[in-house]
Amino acid sequence: MIMENKAGLGRRGWTVSILLLMATMLNYMDRQTLANLAPRIIDEFGLTKEQYGNVESLFSYAFAGGSLFFGFVADRLPVRWLYPVVLILWSGVGMLTGLVHDYPQLLVCRVALGFCEAGHWPCALITTQALISSGGRTFSNSLLQSGASLGAVLTPVIIRWLVAGNTAVGAWREPFIIIGGLGLVWAVAWWFLISSRDFPARGALLLARQRGPHWVSLFADRRFWAVAVMVVCINIPWQLVRAWLPLFLQKGRGYTESFALGFNASYYLATDAGCLLAGAAALWLVRIGWTPHRSRLLVYGICAVLTALTVVASQLPQGWQLLAVLLVVGAASLGLFPCYYSFTQSLSENHVGKATGLLATIGWVASAPTQKLYGRLVDQSGSYDSGFAVVGLAPIIALVTMLVLWPGKSPAEERADLPPGN
């Protein structure tokens, strides 16, 4: 186990953190391969937009189920073995997706991918808890999260390199197989660098989780329901734009596949910047005297308003103004998530894992139908615009809910949020 190091991660901590960053990157690369190749697959299989939306909806439902399943399993099985097995499973499913020949097979692969990918998060958080010192854990978790944007940036770049200009039937299959195969390399690196001795006995940790109020008491806390509304409202624009942006650009605005893939990489660079800026802004506000809760609410509110610029984007034609607004929307929509994580961590000291799993399930289940509904709307109207406009308004609903159900915190709660020495 890593020795306490309050000054930083140390060499061992950096090794673990980079491994986790790479795992998150692979998680998003396998997820985003379909979205980037959706125009080709839809044309080859003759799918309606509603059918494509249904594929993404079922992925969301499967991810919700996997979140609950692996949340419990990861607390009971050795993570040193469970983690690489989970990653190999979702990587294998990613490779199999490149071999499907019809819509039902695509559905099966997407459901299996969503279920298996959900296992990444509980395994990763248990790893940072066990192997990273308390002083470096927050930064390590930041690196873990940053892998999502990195994966989303690299995926269109790799796909563009592999298939750009290749109009042959089935040219889309190779990226699935190559990107999925990268998971096997990660598993070997994990087994080589991480040993069973790195993980402490689980008994003491499980005992600590049983202290305090029972986790069922979360449901009686109105703050829990405020955050439940929030996770739904931030998941809807993030997941829908993630799945439909390549189609919006190519079919809705007439951009070429090559250009859309390149812009998709820029979009996720913007999301990474927005996530980091949101966290930095909240920290700066606390340092100048704002309470942590007020700082989070303000940053969340700013990001919610900027995410609502999808209304403007839906009215803009092809051009630099459209692309600029989309980059702002991307940065703001991921900037909502650090605020959500902070609110979630304030719900309970003893049941953070259970609260996170429950909220993740609520968020995925509630947002899943929007994928199919959006596809149906595109089929019926022939336009991507009206649904794209509305989806960005969802985070504002959560802001209003938070102001009503969780307008502030008691002095004791505020003191608990302050770093040592304040």
Brief sketch in words of this structure:
This protein is mainly alpha-helical and about 425 residues long. About 80% of the residues lie in helices and about 0% in strands.
Descriptive report:
This protein has helices at residues 10-45, 49-73, 79-97, 103-117, 120-131, 134-163, 173-193, 203-209, 222-253, 257-287, 292-307, 310-313, 320-345, 352-381, 385-391, 394-405, 411-417. It is mainly α and 422 residues long. The protein folds into 2 domains: 1-208, MFS general substrate transporter like domains (Growth Hormone, Chain: A, Up-down Bundle), CATH 1.20.1250; 212-416, Up-down Bundle (Growth Hormone, Chain: A), CATH 1.20.1250.20. Helix 3 (79-97) runs antiparallel to helix 7 (173-193) and helix 11 packs antiparallel against helix 13.
Mean pLDDT: 83
Count of β-strands: 0
**Percent in helix:** over 70%
Note the beta-strand portion: under 5%
| CATH architecture level-2 label of the largest domain | Up-down Bundle
Shape: globular
Biggest sheet architecture: none
Question: SSE order, as H and E?
Answer: HHHHHHHHHHHHHHHHH
Structural class of the helix and strand makeup?
A: mainly alpha
CATH class descriptor name of the largest domain: Mainly Alpha
Number of helices: 17
Count of the domains? 2
Could you please say which CATH topology of the largest domain applies here?
Growth Hormone, Chain: A
End-to-end Cα distance: 30 Å
**Radius of gyration of CA atoms, rounded to a whole number:** 21 Å
CATH homologous superfamily of the largest domain, by name?
MFS general substrate transporter like domains
Low-confidence stretches: 1-8, 410-422
